[in-house]
Design a protein that fits this description.
The complex is a heterodimer. Chain A is of the alpha/beta class. Chain A has six helices and eight strands; from the N terminus they run ββββαβαβαβαβαα. Chain B is globular, with a radius of gyration of 23 Å. The chains are: A alpha/beta, B alpha+beta. The A-B interface holds A 80-84, 86-87, 90, 94-95, 109, 111-112, 114-116, 118-119, 138, 141-149, 153-158, 160-162, 164 and B 5, 7-8, 10-11, 14-15, 17-18, 21-22, 31, 35, 38-39, 121, 148, 151-152, 154-163, 226, 234, 237-238, 242, 272, 276-278, 280-281, 283-284, 286-288.
Chain lengths: 164, 547
């Protein structure tokens, strides 16, 4: 079974990602699938179906309302230089208060994990050729952060002023 | 100036360790060229013509004597004995081998410096007025705000992979000396109805598509600075074009949507962020401001000897007229050290000069100095009774060219001699013009003149906003130069217009001389070059050059 990083640990994972242009699995299929958003919306109540969002997804209130019932939400990085997924994750966590798993998919590399976990990703399906163990070690290269984010309630400038 | 506490120091140290590891993995072949590129860029490392180029941030232009000594040490130990100051308050080294760069970053970290986000598609070094805190026309000191922006933008998790680079400038004075209208975001401190506020400009920039920014908010109350910036960046991160890097800057998005639609999206995004945890408080601002308090200055400085020297010594008098800026405290002045001596490339400084300037900053100006976007250095707190003595030392070391603001004070990118992006050389053009028009009386007679040179359309030399702009272009493998006229920086920012067909390198000094002759023949009394141009238009200049 493939492995991913979830909540700071390497774990086996049963979810299989289905690409946008592939044949979509049968509803009766008891394998867990990550479906492209449009396909998932067709059977969003299915417990073994979860959506993945393309980086250019427009996150409207209506879409977010549907997503709240997803068992997990994948966000695709078509290229690690495409930073739109960071904003999507942050909006899901802070604006819509999504509590489930948010998983980074696609061109996911060790050196971006720190930023990803800060904006609310808690699971990472690294690119297949990458070393999970090394990535796990590099999850938090910084012990100090200036900004408020999913992992820090207040920006440092507020913390300092309160401590001063 | 700002001083690191354990948080800042820890972060910078951890950044050095991270980059050391990334560089080792790259050199070992574990990271591909493509994977390593944005990592090195966000640590200021470009691969250049001769060796990597390292760009070090000088946040909002403030530098201590101790830091300058470290830059000198790095130039001697790892480079060829000099450094280059840029148009965005950064300093560049051109000859440091890649495997030495983590070590250099380590040395920088020890004096509270770094190269974080000096390059790459992220929020760059925040810049400001080189006379911040001492200018008489100041609404408020921009530096505490710059520092807050520096912290907010440093390793911001959401905005590390933007569509393109992102530059923010802050101006606190009536006169804009930070070029806010040609930045991705320009912030101008204003007195609003409820106290201090920011006039927010967005979508300015030079480069391939030069545009003057639009005003997106007339008076943003200071409490909301960070959340509002975050809203702008979020809209840009989501909707900025990623399919074409030449159309990826925020200015293209603002133009495509129209400023009103863009503003509406920002406002919508801001509703969620406004009054949230990143809202600034009185305490947070006071905390940042305490690093920029008024220093102890001498009252009642005796200026009689200074006035006498100025009256008697012509060279000193020229220096005072051109390189000395009024200070808000009487008896003090800000002194611009020109890095435009004809013997050096514009913006370049050698190790001996750096060491000397560090000493002078300590002896004459509270141990601090500033870097200007005109690529000069500024000692901002010099007592007038010590100015003559200071000038004599500067003059001995080729740092007193009395030409600030004149034709000789050329802004110039490193160009084809160093830069991989350049189409053409720029330094030899600057030097040839300086040599051709070097009679100081004539230079002074020409009055204020911004001559800016870029070696390619990325416009690091800000040629679009020069009264005279020179752009290096490539014509079938040959270096040619296009002239534009009428550009302006500051409050009346304006993009210059291309005069006509481009010229060969050797023709440029003569072309400039002819343009100046047209101006001299046509000007009204006291009228500057750029004003004459805007009054009479391009035609007489075209005739003067192409006839």
């Amino acid at each position: 079974m493939p492995k991913i990083i979830r909540d700071g640990q390497i774990v086996e994972d049963a979810w299989i990602r289905v690409c946008a242009d592939a044949n979509q699995p049968d509803t009766q299929d008891s394998q867990a699938y990550l479906l492209p958003l449009h396909a998932w919306l067709e059977e969003s109540a299915h417990p073994l179906r979860a959506p993945w969002l393309a980086s250019d997804t427009e996150l409207t209130d209506a879409l977010a309302a549907s997503l709240m019932q997803a068992p997990l939400i994948g966000i695709d990085f078509p290229d690690f230089n495409d930073g739109r997924g960071y904003t999507l994750a942050r909006q899901l966590r802070t604006r819509y208060q999504y509590q489930g798993e948010i998983r980074a998919l696609g061109d996911v590399l060790q050196d971006q994990l720190f930023y990803m976990q800060r904006v609310g990703f808690n699971a990472f399906a690294l690119r297949a050729d990458k070393d999970l163990q090394a990535a796990l070690q590099a999850l938090k290269p910084f012990s100090v952060c200036y900004q408020a984010a999913s992992d820090q309630a207040l920006p440092l400038f507020i913390q300092r002023a309160q401590g001063a | 100036m700002y001083q690191y506490d354990t948080y800042d120091q820890t972060l910078v140290n951890e950044r050095v360790a991270q980059f050391k590891d990334q560089t080792q993995r790259y050199l070992a072949g574990d990271l591909s060229e493509d994977e390593y590129r944005p990592l090195r860029l966000q640590n200021g490392v470009y691969i250049q013509r001769h060796a990597p180029m390292l760009r070090v941030a000088i946040p909002y232009g403030m530098l201590s004597a101790r830091q300058l000594r470290t830059l000198a040490h790095i130039a001697t130990t790892y480079d060829k004995g000099y450094a280059h100051f840029t148009t965005r308050q950064n300093v560049q080294f051109n000859w440091i081998p890649l495997e030495k760069i983590p070590q250099v970053l380590d040395e920088l970290a020890q004096v509270e410096m770094h190269a974080i986000q000096t390059s790459g598609n992220c929020i760059r070094n925040t810049t400001t007025d080189q006379f911040a805190g001492i200018a008489a026309d100041e609404v408020a000191d921009p530096r505490p705000w710059c520092e807050l922006i520096r912290q907010w933008s440093t390793l911001h998790p959401e905005f590390a992979f933007l569509p393109r680079k992102f530059k923010i400038a802050v101006n606190g004075a009536k006169q804009d000396r930070a070029a806010v209208q040609v930045h991705d975001i320009g912030l101008e401190l204003v007195q609003g109805a409820q106290g201090l506020a920011f006039k927010v400009w967005v979508g300015g920039g030079l480069g391939r598509t030069p545009l003057i920014a639009d005003v997106i908010c007339e008076a943003l109350p200071w409490q909301h600075l960070i959340t509002y910036l975050e809203a702008i960046l979020r809209v840009y991160n989501q909707y900025g074009r990623r399919d074409n890097k030449y159309k990826a800057r925020i200015k293209i998005l603002v133009k495509a949507l129209g400023v009103d639609t863009f503003r509406a999206r920002v406002e919508q995004e801001w509703q969620e962020l406004k009054d949230g945890p990143s809202t600034l408080t009185e305490q947070a601002v006071t905390y940042a401001a305490r690093f920029f308090h008024e220093p102890a200055r001498t009252q009642g400085v005796d200026t009689q000897a200074f006035e006498q020297a100025r009256a008697q010594n012509k060279a000193f008098s020229r220096f005072v007229t051109n390189n000395v800026q009024a200070h808000k405290v009487s008896g003090y002045a800000a002194v611009t050290l020109s890095l435009k001596h004809p013997s050096h490339a514009p913006g370049d400084i050698n190790t001996q000069q750096m060491t000397l300037v560090a000493d002078l900053a300590e002896s004459y100006s509270l141990g601090e100095l500033r870097v200007s976007h005109n690529q000069n250095l500024v000692l901002a707190d010099v007592r007038l009774d010590q100015l003559f003595e200071l000038w004599q030392i500067l003059d001995q070391h080729q740092l007193a060219s009395p030409t600030v603001g004149t034709l000789q004070d050329i802004i110039c990118c490193p160009g084809g001699d160093f830069c991989n992006l350049a189409n053409a050389k720029s330094i030899p053009i600057a030097q040839a013009i300086q040599a051709k028009i070097d009679d100081l009386d004539y230079v002074y007679d020409l009055g204020p003149l911004d001559l800016n040179i870029s070696g390619c359309m990325n416009a690091c030399g800000h040629h679009h906003i020069g009264h005279i702009g020179i752009l290096g272009v490539d014509k079938k493998g040959q270096e040619f130069y296009q002239i534009s006229l009428g550009g302006r920086s500051g409050n009346q920012a304006n993009i210059g217009k291309i005069l006509g067909p481009s010229f060969a390198q050797e023709a440029i000094p003569e072309v400039i001389a002819k343009l100046l002759a047209v101006y001299v023949a046509q000007r009204h009394p006291e009228e500057t070059f750029v004003d004459t141009y805007h009054r009479i238009g391009a035609k007489p200049f075209k005739e003067g050059v192409y006839a």
